[in-house]
Amino acid sequence: MEEMTHPKFAVVGHPNKGKSAIVSSLALDDSVQISDTPGTTTVKRSFPLKVDGKVIYELFDTPGFQRARRALEWLEGHDVSADKKYEVVNAFIHTFKEDPKFNDEIELLEPIMEGAGIIYVVDASKPYGEEYEAEMEILRWTGQPSMALINHIDEDDYTAEWKRALGHYFKIVRTYNPMDVSLEQHLSILESMAQLKEEWTAPVKASMDFFQHYYDAMLHQSSEAISQALQSAISLTETLYFESDNATEAQKKQLETHYKNSLRAIESDTQKSIESIWKHEHLEKNQNPLSFDDMDLFSEASASLFGLTRKELLMTGVSSGAVTGAGIDLLFAGHTFFLGGAIGAVAGGVGAYFAFNELSEIKVFGKTLGSKYLEIGPMENRNFPYILLGRLLYHTSVIAKRSHAKRDKVVFEMQSSFKEKWLDDSLKKELEKYHKKFRSGKAVDAEEMKVYDTLIYGTLQKLL
Amino acid sequence: MMNLKAYLDLYEVLQQDRSTREERRNFGLTFPELSKQPLQQLLKWASEKRVTLKKPLLSETLSSYLYGITLTLSVFAFILGLLSGVGLLSYNGHEPVNVIYFMAMVIFVPLFTMLLALFSMLRANSAQSILVHISPAYWMERMVSLLPNKLETQLKGSLSDLKVSPLVLNWLVIKRSQMIALSFSLGLLLALLGVVATRDIAFAWSTTLSVSPESFHSFLNTLAFAWRDFFPWAVPSVELVEQSQYYRLGEKLADEMISNASFLGEWWKFLLFATLFYALVLRLFVYALSVFGLKRAIARSFLTLEGAQALLHDMNEPLISTRASTHEKGFNSEEVLYPRTIDRFDRSYDAVLGWAIDRQALTVINETTEVISPALYETGGANTLEEDRSIMEHCHGEVLLYVKAWEPPTMDFMDFLEMLLQKTDKVLIAPMGTQSRQYQSKEKDLNVWARKLFGLNSPKVWLKV
């Protein structure tokens, strides 16, 4: 046996029992081919967990057993004591290495005989069958530490009978659904893998810390991407130069369309980067709701559904206005106390009410100086930040919770109740301060952005 | 160096950067001492990546544009200052030069504009800062930028997409306003020196307000606070103030002034120091403040550049990778239409076999499918290969082979089937669902079997669908 450098684990089993799905989910890799078709995996593939280039552990996805009874017959043809059985398995590999008949068995046994621990995968949504025993017996011949993972591909449940059977062959039997996996479940499987061999405990436990750190880093990166998107979208301005004396309606329309498209691009670019942060780069999505065809970002329906209602917005306006009022009071050393607050509140509230629908005014510049241009932005619609933020938070929560083993199309169907999950009055007030600043076009320094990031990060944590 | 050039270089690097996460992390590990100094780390990255940018660099284009426009405006301001100075000091030999005009230009106007500049600095954080926008430099620049210009056309593309911090832009205007004001002051100074050196000027002071010479002297003394202790001769004496008060309609003092014409020229020393202190030294101080402010604004804005935080994160966070290093070969999972299918069982078969299905289960399945057969065998599963071979010896004619629909056909099964076909005329493969589903198989499972049997391409093999 080769000298071990880092723990290795071979995910093995009968064909089509979800080995690749498990590897995909444990390795956070959505590019692994997963299919109902057996024989999708034809050669073993290594999935190393590397931290700064150093391999912490290595997972192997392997083809399923194809001629287990035949292989076992060959092994059992050698009457050896238990301590020599692994030599017979090595001899099997050596003998049939070039024989296409045992290609799959060789592919799955090789990493095991090179020191990999065994993770035997079964599907407990189907009844147990004796045909599995030949496979488990071969694995026992290798003498490598092993555990069984019970997967559930369909709804039926035969876990009890599987557990009874697996208990005869494996010390550790765990249930793991790669299609619906949380960080806790992922860590719990790693914990079990760490127990397979004493020398593996430290590195695998270290990998658990890395995964926790990794998850937290992904949350941070997502919140940064969302904050950046909000700032860019709210402060966005678009310019259109024109030659004639006055800008035509068509030019104004063109500018507005361009402005809306830029906002949409900010959203879709942010979504892409969030998908990339969470390693979902091969995602197939139902684009309709995101293309705003029937759920326009700028329609009043979606404004009320995903952002704040007029009433809620009015409340935000009143509160942010009241802050302005307090500012006026301070200027006059408190003499205007209630009055200043009231003026501010009314002004803010009215502003919020009327800023519900419009995006931003189109202004004409340079009219008297020769080079004329139209300008739109920054975003004046008070509700827009909440709509965009709600959509991005929803998108992130779906992506972050999605297992890498899933290959179905993602359908983003945000319910209006989603808003209640993340937005409360105190958060509204906090966010509004920053939205106001983004809208004003004032410079936002790194510390301020950090505070905004923290608000988004906290919201994401709550959602996940 | 944390200057505008470095800021714009980093901006451009971040905009065009296609570096991988690995490259960024490698960079972070190569310079571990910078991991706690984000600004230095960003600057180092920008300086390393600068060579990959397309020429001309945005920083070069913009610097050359800013340099050109600032130089033009500075020269213009200098000439304006010079002409203003000469105009204010013009002496026609009949009426003395009123020092108050010149003092207004070298003391009060600079003080007022410097005050405005200080307010602008305090409000520089705001994009809509009115104090920045009323700066002459801002408007002169706007006018110049609106004129047709080749460089401007070149820049329009890149500038329209330029997302530079408003803080930096405001400080740029403030700093350049101070440079232009400084040029104007230099023009005034040169005018003063030139006129004093080339002409004999009688200075006087005149005002409609009732100001006594003593009060005026005291006022001048206050204005000269910065130099009166070091250069007392550069502060007008009470006598000079008294003698140089000028009334347009006064006869008596006019004679006195004429008799003391050489004495009246002494004012130039005060005007020179006033220009040096208020128009130049203080302006230099405000300029230095603006340079410092711009530098600070740039330093603050480095970290808010789009992509800067992500870059820092990539450089300083451990690079965790979990993916396979090799690419997986694609596979074909197209559905096939198996050519030999039946949808009803016959009443009887020469033999009924169950692949990994025990005898008891086979009997139940046969009852469900209402199939009868003289021979019933369990194959595969826990059987040895020898046992399977022996069962095959008993098979002939038409054989019904039940299989578990959910278990995909392994090569073990295919080997068995191929051997069975040698002994029989026809084999009907019947994929059965689980007992809980009344042995009904799923469409997707049937497809798996159809695809595998299609590959075998044997006319003897039929599939129950």
Task: Describe this structure in a few short sentences.
The complex is a heterodimer of chains A (464) and B (465). By secondary structure, chain A is of the alpha/beta class.
Protein described:
The complex is a heterodimer of chains A (464) and B (465). With 464 residues, chain A is of the alpha/beta class. Chain A folds into two domains: 8-196, 3-Layer(aba) Sandwich (Rossmann fold); 213-298 and 359-463, no CATH class. Chain A is 52% helix and 12% strand. Chain A is built from 16 helices and eleven strands. Chain A has helices spanning 19-26, 68-76, 85-96, 103-113, 131-142, 159-166, 183-194, 198-235, 249-277, 300-306, 310-331, 337-354, 384-401, 418-422, 425-440, 446-463; strands at residues 8-13, 45-51, 54-61, 117-123, 146-151, 172-175, 238-242, 285-286, 362-365, 372-376, 410-411. Chain A has a six-stranded mixed β-sheet with strand order 2-3-1-4-5-6, with helices on both faces. A three-stranded antiparallel β-sheet of chain A has the order 7-10-9, covered by helices on one side. In chain A, a hairpin with a 6-residue loop joins β9 and β10. The radius of gyration of chain A is 30 Å and the shape is elongated. The two termini of chain A are 44 Å apart. With 465 residues, chain B is an alpha/beta fold. Chain B has two domains: 4-316, no CATH class; 341-464, Rossmann fold (3-Layer(aba) Sandwich). Chain B is 58% helix and 8% strand. Chain B contains 19 helices and nine strands. Chain B has helices at residues 4-16, 21-30, 38-49, 58-88, 99-122, 130-133, 136-146, 150-160, 166-198, 213-223, 238-243, 252-259, 261-264, 267-302, 308-316, 359-369, 385-393, 411-423, 443-456; strands at 97-98, 203-204, 320-321, 341-342, 351-355, 376-379, 398-404, 426-432, 461-464. Chain B has a six-stranded parallel β-sheet with strand order 4-9-8-7-5-6, with helices on both faces. A two-stranded parallel ribbon of chain B has the order 1-2. In chain B, β5 (351-355), α16 (359-369) and β6 form a beta-alpha-beta unit. In chain B, α1 packs antiparallel against α4, α2 (21-30) packs across α15 (308-316) and α9 packs antiparallel against α14 (267-302). Chain B is rod-shaped. The mean pLDDT of chain B is 85. β2 (45-51) of chain A pairs antiparallel with β3 of chain B, so a sheet runs across the interface.
